[in-house]
Amino acid sequence: RGRLALALHVAGVNAALLLLYPRPLYKIAVRACFLGFAFGCGVLLSAGRSAWRHFGWYMCSLSLFHYSEYLVTAINNPRSLSLDSFLLNHSFEYNLAALSSWVEFTLEKVLFPELKQITWLSTVGLLMVIVGDCLRKAAMLTAGSNFNHIVQNEKSDTHTLVTSGVYGWFRHPSYVGWFYWSIGTQVLLCNPICVVGYALASWRFFRERIEEEEITLIHFFGEEYLEYKRKVPSGLPFIKGVKLEL
């Protein structure tokens, strides 16, 4: 009965959204509703005493991250807002990584259930997730309309170099936050294989992304950015950014 009621509820909400909103807004509403539903399921799992409690923390963290990406973009830079701002379809590799973490958690929960009950380790992971996501959102809010999920190849009239706030700590605080958030999700789940895999894959992704972005920033701001680059670290371990040949 519970599963039937849940299926009818989801179908009813979907039908209501389809009737209430035109097609473009429906696509946004259904994604936001799905993330809210996932967050609610995570809260229910977290509130219980089952072995899936830590997975409930993970569900809350993941759904809140994706929803807040869209929300902060809508506040900061509505001109760049699109369905992609949810980052739900970030890339095939991103979706594969998420699926891998779910598979590892499920298999290890069956084979080594005690591994998934290390509350202090999951708490450390949850703290990494919270701090990482807060740092990323602080970077987005500080950058304002200068922030975009896509590396820009052309400088707009309003594009300025932001060096205040969290940008005074790291050159790429949004990437630093996302890096530790992603690793934190796997620490939270007590996924030893994915902790290593996420760390290596994220490090490689952000190394390439930072080099690409800094080439553009040097083109935009010239010596102003080079001076900033000399004074402020990237924030990510062993990543110094683009190297300039003299």
UniProtKB/TrEMBL annotation:
Q: Where does it primarily localize?
A: endoplasmic reticulum
Matching InterPro entries: ICMT_MeTrfase, PPMT_MeTrfase
Q: Which Pfam families match?
A: ICMT (PF04140)
Any one GO cellular component localisation term in the record: endoplasmic reticulum membrane
Q: Which GO terms describe its biological process?
A: methylation
Reactions that this protein is recorded to catalyse: [protein]-C-terminal S-[(2E,6E)-farnesyl]-L-cysteine + S-adenosyl-L-methionine = [protein]-C-terminal S-[(2E,6E)-farnesyl]-L-cysteine methyl ester + S-adenosyl-L-homocysteine
Q: Return one GO MF term.
A: protein C-terminal S-isoprenylcysteine carboxyl O-methyltransferase activity
User: What is the protein's membrane topology class?
Assistant: Multi-pass membrane protein
Q: What class of enzyme is it?
A: transferase
Quote the subcellular location field of this record: Endoplasmic reticulum membrane
Q: Which UniProt keywords apply?
A: Endoplasmic reticulum, Membrane, Methyltransferase, S-adenosyl-L-methionine, Transferase, Transmembrane, Transmembrane helix
Q: Which residues cross the membrane?
A: 25-48, 178-201
**Domain of life of the source:** Eukaryota
What Enzyme Commission number(s) appear in the record? 2.1.1.100
Q: Give the protein's function.
A: Catalyzes the post-translational methylation of isoprenylated C-terminal cysteine residues.
> Which family is it part of?
Belongs to the class VI-like SAM-binding methyltransferase superfamily. Isoprenylcysteine carboxyl methyltransferase family.
Please state what the protein is called: Protein-S-isoprenylcysteine O-methyltransferase
Tell me which species this is from.
Answer: Piprites chloris (Wing-barred manakin)
Q: Which gene encodes it?
A: Icmt
